[in-house]
């Protein structure tokens, strides 16, 4: 059933990256009748290839980019010499980040799309309105929720925008952390709601419901209940007979012809052989770090500074994942190691409020996501011994009695925060390593600390007898798995890379569809928005292709 | 059905490990170094009212890691052990090995080196060997998970904990 194309076939579309957005493009474009080749740098793991193995998957990163083979350099500011230091993490497998993510699946709020108009400018940052509104995206959020299978309770978050349909599935069973969080939030006058999760609470479209095994964040789902591209979208794409998924295919260059249009991509196959796949159009869904890197590596006569980079915006305005992590200990067992990570969320402090004196806001969820070894390694407060009998007793007493709250806070777009190519370091394929430049805007840090106070309040109101923060979670961020903003969307080619339909301003048959097009970071948890944008872009691409406008 | 088969396979893998452990040969350690590292791990996670690193077989986990994926850490083990022995002789001039020190002496010595890269690495390996999956050679009889109160299963049903059970109970009344 799976299609196979020859590299010399000029297929309708090559999609680079089979992740959250790439899965959407694969399914939508092939279902609409187009030929699609999807190139994924990671392998094609199936449910049977996933395991309950904290050491291999979570601590040794079996599913993610390997810093030894794919090193990146890092610096906080352009004046510094960048040094080897892992700064970006992404899932390197068919299905991408949607395979191993926590599965929080909330929508951005209507005001996220025009915060510049609401707030004004922020010195030291480049806060902008999106070229689209929540209403433009709403039908595609709904499409994503129904295609993938999202469990949640529509209307339960009073701060959400209007929705045209409820969630397809009821919320997941509440955990003890959710019960404590909800009770405490209500006591404080806040508005907790059941977490919208990309996990099936009931069987859906031939897929099995969640069995609450507890190996969710950082892991691939062994029963296909996590609503990843792998479980929900790729199989549909393959079944069309018009989509070929090529795993272990690492794209190093998008070729540009004399006419300024892209003509295909060069990739390394599993044996490091270079193959040129011809295509009529290219859709890059390689994530907010690899997409700009690939464009910068795709220099040509038409684009000497990198593809689609005529105004020098590719790679700039990178936004990271911010938010503190607080833990509380309770009198009775919560057994948070069971089931999914998050069952309750609140958005009371999501909206930026001028009274705070700085820009920013955040969501907050109830969770505990340390597995046993990670907890024992660094989950305890630093004021108790870190080894020996007393430590061991505390480890034994605390593990089942804890919950945490993780904040998901704003990250301002700052021009110098960027993805660029390192001058000297190469990856295992001889390609220039990614150089990451990132330093939080001071308002990001103020927001993290503001929300941290709310995290303490809620854990305290929930009855925690001891509360502490993971200390590094309140410092400047130097590593992120949310990779946003590096090829942002806008109407003005001078200040953005793609237009409101995710088409590159510079190249009519090139589309960039992933976290890189986000104009603002919302309050993190960008997967729903990335996938909604992908559905919207896919619709536009089909229409344009049919009209001969690509 | 898939789950049952997987459980069986995991159980088989664990049992194979236990059988192998009865006729053990270190893949990388020499016996003396293994005894020393085993004693250090035993102070990090002591055998006290519940099993510790020794009974969890942590040393076999570490040996296998150093023979395999963590082979680039061997030099740190060699150097770290030798530096720790120098420190031992400095503090306890008449001693002959870490394993031969009294419990209090061992603790005193480890406090003197606890900020070194070597100690932090042994702590890291000890914790992985104690709390990681038994298929890596440690966490025998799941003693690590038992310490935490984790009931290891491939699937669970609600209620999961005290508070959601209580809420469900209150809600159903």
Brief description of this entry?
With 550 residues, chain A is an alpha/beta fold. Helix content of chain A is 23%, strand content 17%. In chain A, strand 14 and strand 15 (432-437) form a beta hairpin.
Overall mean pLDDT of chain B: 90
How far apart the termini of chain A lie comes to 28 Å
Structural class of chain B: mainly alpha
Rg of chain A, Å, rounded: 22 Å
Number of domains of chain B: 1
Beta-strand fraction estimate of chain A: 15-25%
- Beta strands of chain B, count: 0
Residue share in helix of chain A: 10-25%
The count of helical stretches of chain B stands at 9
Assembly category: heterodimer
Strand content of chain B: under 5%
The rounded distance between the terminal residues' Cα atoms of chain B is 36 Å
Low-pLDDT runs of 5+ residues of chain A are none
H/E order of the elements of chain B? HHHHHHHHH
SS content category of chain A: alpha/beta
Q: Largest interface, per-chain counts? A: A-B, 44 and 45 residues
Q: Can you summarize the main beta sheet of chain A?
A: 7 strands, mixed
Describe this protein with a few key phrases.
heterodimer; A: 550 residues; alpha/beta; 7-stranded mixed beta sheet; B: 173 residues; mainly alpha; 9 helices; 0% strand; elongated
Overview of this protein structure:
- With about 550 residues, chain A is an alpha/beta fold.
- Helix content of chain A is about 25%, strand content about 15%.
- Chain A has helices at about 20-30, 55-60, 95-100, 115-120, 135-150, 175-185, 230, 235-240, 290-295, 370-380, 390-400, 440-460, 525-545, and strands at about 10-15, 35-40, 70-75, 85, 190-195, 245, 250-255, 260-270, 275-285, 325-330, 345, 360-365, 400-410, 420-425, 430-435, 465-470, 510.
- In chain A, strands 1, 2, 6, 7, 8, 9 and 17 form a 7-stranded mixed β-sheet that branches. In chain A, strands 5-11-12-13-10-16 form a 6-stranded antiparallel β-sheet, covered by helices on one side. Chain A has a 4-stranded mixed β-sheet with strand order 4-3-15-14, with helices on one face.
- In chain A, β14 (about 420-425) and β15 (about 430-435) form a beta hairpin.
- In chain A, α1 (about 20-30) runs parallel beside α13 (about 525-545) and α6 (about 175-185) packs across α12 (about 440-460).
- Chain A is globular.
- The model of chain A has no long low-confidence stretch (mean pLDDT about 95).
- Chain B is an all-alpha fold.
- Chain B has one domain.
- In chain B, about 65% of the residues lie in helices and about 0% in strands.
- Chain B has helices at about 1-20, 30-45, 55, 60-65, 75-90, 105-115, 115-130, 145-150, 160-170.
- The model of chain B has no long low-confidence stretch (mean pLDDT about 90).
